[in-house]
Amino acid sequence: MNFLESIRNGHLREEIETQFGNWGKITFRFRWLIVVIMFTFLGLLFSQLKNLQFDTSMESFFHKSDPTLQRYNEFRRQYGREDSVMVAIKTDEVFDRDFLDKLYRLHKDFEQHVPYLNQVDSLVNARLTLGNDEGLVVKEFLEDWPLSPHEINRLKGLALNNPLYVGNYISADGKITMMQIQNQVYLPNENELDVLNGFEEADTPDTKRQFDENELLGGKENAEIKSAIDNIIKNYQSDDFHIYVASGPYTTSSFMDTTRKSMLKYTGYGIVLTALLLAFIFKRFVMIFLPLSVALLSMLSAMSIMSLMGIRLSFSMQIVPSFLLAVGVGNSVHVFTAFFHALDEGRSKADAIAHALQHSGLAIFMTGVTTAGGLVSFISSNMKPIAEFGSITPVGVLFALFFSLTLLPALIAITPIKIKKPVQENKPAMINRLLMACGDYATDNPLKVVSGWALIIGISLFFAFQIKFSFFVYNQLPPEHPLIQSLRVVDDEMSGAAPLEIIIDTGRVDGVKDPAFLHKVDQVYSMMNTFEYDNHTFNKVISIIDINKELHQALNENRPDFYTIPDDPALIAQELLLFENSGSDDLEKMVDSTFRHARLSFRTPSLDGIRFQPIMNAFMKEFDNIFGNEYQVQVTGLLDLTLNIFKELYYSMAKTYIIAFIIITPLMILLIGDLRTGLVSMIPNLAPIIITLGVMGAFNIHLTTATLLTGSIAMGLVVDDTIHFMHNFQRFFQRTGDVKKSVHLTLQTTGKAITFTTIVLSSAFMIFMLNEVIEWAYFGLVTGLCIMIALLADIMLSPALVALLHRNTLVRTANT
User: Fold this and answer.
1) Banded pLDDT at 199 (limits 50, 70, 90)
2) How far is CA 463 from CA 147, 297, 450, 457, 654, in A?
């Protein structure tokens, strides 16, 4: 007799179930020892929770080895942070003496009180390059403050006619000005050498720190930056000085706060809701306290392991507590259902515990393994938080499994439990009647049921292919959120909040000083004036040619017709040398120390990744037409990170679903012991996911980094109910040989537990519909919906499928 045949005939299954029953007797006998050992271990493990950290930065989506992140890190090492905090200030007239005086004071407050500061850029210190009788003058725009009304009017004309200022420092209508707060890349290092006088020293190995992500500003520092900015602007905010803050560490910290508060809030909601549901269903205090205790211990254990592994809480991780809470409670419901059934039959507590583990232990073990297997599929994702989700949630599920089979029986054994009949017989009877009716209809009309589900699945597949992918900051928070309003002001009124960086390698030292190269960069500016794709444009670019043109104009009597690039390489080099000697360090932001690499910094309004990718493709095609193969062009910056995250959504969805299917299917076959039945049993597991995807496509619910999790999470969860159904059906079918009777017995015993766990699980996820982060609200909706559809599949589709598989038995039974 081979292994599968042994399982199919029930011999091995019965032996394993007997051993689970024996284990139940052991847990009762050594209950206090188990409790003491477990809580001692948990006390040591939970000491790690204090080290748990948050990370909601865009960089956190990438593994250290990802080429996209490595390019971005190299860019930051060379040029510093490009994700500045943008402070837009709206008024009736920027060039008003009182307004400028207030702006000046705000600028100085930022410089003095914002921690980890590199520099503040605004109209106060914007570069003003002029020529006079003494030569070149490079000064700050409001360097001579306070100014006379005449000087203010003169500066207004200079600002509104300076292409570098409009869109960066001031809106075209002169009613909005913008400040940019650039923070340091690294944490302060007291051993770091001072960088003095010029670029050569700045780029030497002794003073240019090598990149180490452990030295980057993190969540703690970003929170300090946000707090300092908030404390400053509250002293300036007024109707005629309306301040909007967005981007950079400020946005990162805002999302971190939202994630932290959201996780705590919805974990709390989940605990309260689960407690209420357990109280409503079981009417016993022990059924509230013990399942929640086991679930909370599983959740805290997983989060302690997160801390030990150095995994930080991110967007994807905020659902971990609620998810593990639901899984832990689900296991307990199955144990308690069998336990109380045995108690109500008059068995002792020891025998009832043994019966509960003998009846449900194997199924709980297999559901834990299959759920963990489904979640492991996320490890294949190239997006770091999704992969980390796939690393830590299986650990939490296995903790829940372990505690359900060890700690829970021990806690039941030491907890006083009043032996009584259920308070209300009508409610279970009503549920039983409904389950029996579904089972009877499915086994009496299997072809109709399967055909109906096949039709629904077919329609759902059509709509599933209509699903759109999305990665858009505006979808993260409600429209009225201050951060979203600030982003809209920057996007609509200024140059845009999305930074794109392009580095061009000329291939040789001083290649940037070549007039031919500079003229090609100038062609990019001209191309931007005419470029439009899908009603989208690139609004602003900054590069070395802005300095070139300013210098040439200033050194030629400030005449506008000299705002051009010289054609003489020697003259270009001479003018740049004068600029370096003027004391300005602006060249460091535009080129490397050898003048081999040039940086082009673009600003564009925020867009959804699904829209921006074709725009970017069209833009880079124009870019390649200008530079050809002569120069090496490298794209980086936060916008590049966003696009790569968006592209990875496609691959992650396909990979995780396929891997989850590959992992779970053999486990189902192994449990059931029959290849054909095992494969057929995957249909009730896949049907809810396909139908849910169809609902998403039909109602235009986008696939995001949150809703991406639905499929594999749901597959890992809904397979639990299928395992419990098939496991018990096989047991009863081997005893009776009657499909209809076996379905009846299965639904009478396991059906109630499946129904109760579905209520708990779906409610735990649907509570996320209250989340202010929109994509997490959708995640809660579609995951809860998927779990409810799975219940229908298990009480309708599964009985119909087993009826078709054993239709000869049905015929014989009908004839007898």
Assistant:
1) very low
2) 65, 40, 20, 10, 17
Is residue 619 within 8 A of residue 500, CB to CB? The reply is no
Between the CA of residue 509 and those of 77, 247, 370, what are the distances in Å? Answer: 20, 35, 59
The reported pLDDT for the residue numbered 24 is: 93
How many residues are listed for the chain in this entry?
816
Peptide bond into 146 cis (omega under 30): yes
Please state, as a whole number, how many other Cβ atoms lie within 10 Å of the Cβ of residue 700: 9
DSSP string, 186-211: B---TTSPPP-SSHHHHHSTTTSPPP
More confident residue, 495 or 517: 517
Q: Is 626 helix (H, G, I), strand (E, B) or coil?
A: helix
Please report, as a single letter, which amino acid is at residue 622.
Answer: E
Sign of CA pseudo-dihedral 243, 249, 252, 258: negative
Q: Are 246 and 497 in contact (CB under 8 A)?
A: yes
Rounded Cα–Cα distance for residues 200 and 567 (Å):
26
The overall average pLDDT reported for the chain is 85
Residue with structure tokens 């537990």? Answer: 753
User: Alpha-carbon distance 166 to 173, whole Å?
Assistant: 9
Q: Where are the alpha helices (DSSP H) in 582-682?
A: 609-627, 638-672, 675-680
Q: For residue 289, what are its two tokens?
A: 């306290």
| Residue 117 lies inside a defined structural domain of this protein | no
**pLDDT confidence of residue 421:** 54
Closest among 145, 412, 463, 137 to 293, alpha carbons compared: 412
Whether residue 700 has pLDDT greater than 60: yes
Q: What is the pLDDT of residues 342-366, one digit of tens each?
A: 888 888 999 999 999 998 898 889 8
* Residue 801 within a domain: yes
Type of residue at 22? N
Burial class of residue 316 (count of CB atoms within 10 Å of its CB; 0-12, 13-18, 19+): buried
Give domain status of residue 313, yes or no. yes
Going 323 to 326 to 330 to 336, the CA torsion angle's sign is positive
Q: Which of 657, 632, 551, 606 shows the shortest CA–CA distance to 164?
A: 551
Residues 6+ apart with CB under 8 A from 701: 467, 695, 707, 778, 781, 782
Which contacts qualify for 139-147: CB closer than 8 Å, 24 or more apart?
Answer: 142/100, 142/104, 145/100, 145/101, 145/104, 146/97, 146/101, 147/97, 147/100
CATH number of the domain where residue 737 is located: 1.20.1640.10
Residue at 263 is within a domain = yes
How far apart are alpha carbons 745 and 724 in whole angstroms?
12
Span 743-765, pLDDT tens digits: 988 888 788 878 888 888 888 88
The structure tokens listed for 58 are 């865009």
pLDDT at 594: 94
Enclosing domain of residue 421: 3-57+253-473+643-815
106 vs 45, 100, 171, 432, CA distance in Å? 47, 10, 19, 70
In this predicted model, what pLDDT tens digit does every residue of 26-60 receive, in sequence order? 999 999 999 999 999 999 999 999 888 877 777 88
**Number of folded domains in the chain?**
1
What average pLDDT does range 551-568 have in this prediction?
A: 93
